[in-house]
Amino acid sequence: MVVSTFSLLLNGERAVVVLFVGCVLFSLPLSLLLPGLALSLLALFSLYTEITAENSISLAQFKTRPGASSGILLAAVTLPTLVLAKLIQLSRALALHEFEHEGFDYLTMQYWAASASSFFVLLYLRIVMWCSPDNAFSHPCSPWGMKVGSICTVLCVALFFTPCTRMQTMLNAVWVLLHGLAAVKLWHHLLHTFPSCASIGEALLVTDGLVLYFGDMLACTITKASAFLHKIVYFFFLD
User: For this chain's UniProt record, which GO biological process terms are given (predicted)?
Assistant: First the structure.
């Protein structure tokens, strides 16, 4: 009975994802222990969300592709796992002084941004299910569901930590949270603009990539604009 239940929960797709994530986590150095813990929690949360989504009628409001599996676990961990694998590779180069620390820190920010994008969409899905009339533990939009959602959000922010100044940490946290909020908005927009064209997971995977790409482009634009303004101020007022 236990074996049959386990086989139903861990199908072929989930087994491959678990194996992929497990291989990356097994290769983690101690310096990346916190991102590895975050990825483990993200994988567990996405697996739980995918399993509960299969039996929830509240997600029928999202017009997904008929007959397609949700693919939530696969979509939620793909980009963060790839970025973490790159961080593992760069950490070895960093130990041999073959890579600059600034590039490593920037890629770490990319990892947290990708994780936040997946996490916030998962959190949104959980809130939709918590607020559903078919939820046996809460009535629509119950305070209990919102409290649990708030706790998950606080835990996500608490996991984000980098060894830098307090102001820089706060700015980084805000930047990561903005990625998460933008991901929820874009994911919702994709499913409603292109009905019956993608599953929940496919839309999430596209959303993660787009949010990370445009966030990176915006960060580069802001950096170049700030440097340009600094040169102008220095030339006219400080020279």
Answer: dolichyl monophosphate biosynthetic process
Residues 105-121 have pLDDT tens digits of 888 899 999 999 999 99
Stated as kind and residue range, the H or E segment containing 118 is: helix 101-130
Domain count, the chain: 1
- Report which DSSP code applies to 58: G
pLDDT in tens, 81-138: 999 999 998 888 777 766 677 778 888 899 999 999 999 999 888 888 887 665 544 4
Q: Are 70 and 52 in contact (CB under 8 A)?
A: no
Would residue 96 count as lying in a domain? yes
Residue 227 within any structural domain of the chain:
no
Q: Which domain holds residue 206?
A: 2-213
Vertex 114 angle, CA 113 and 120, to 5°: 85
159 touches 34 (CB < 8 A): yes
Inter-residue contact 203 to 139 (CB < 8 Å): no
Tokens 């990370």, residue?
Answer: 212
Establish if 224 belongs to a structural domain: no
pTM of the full structure: 0.81
In a domain, 103, yes or no: yes
Which two structure tokens, joined as six digits, stand for 77? 């961990």
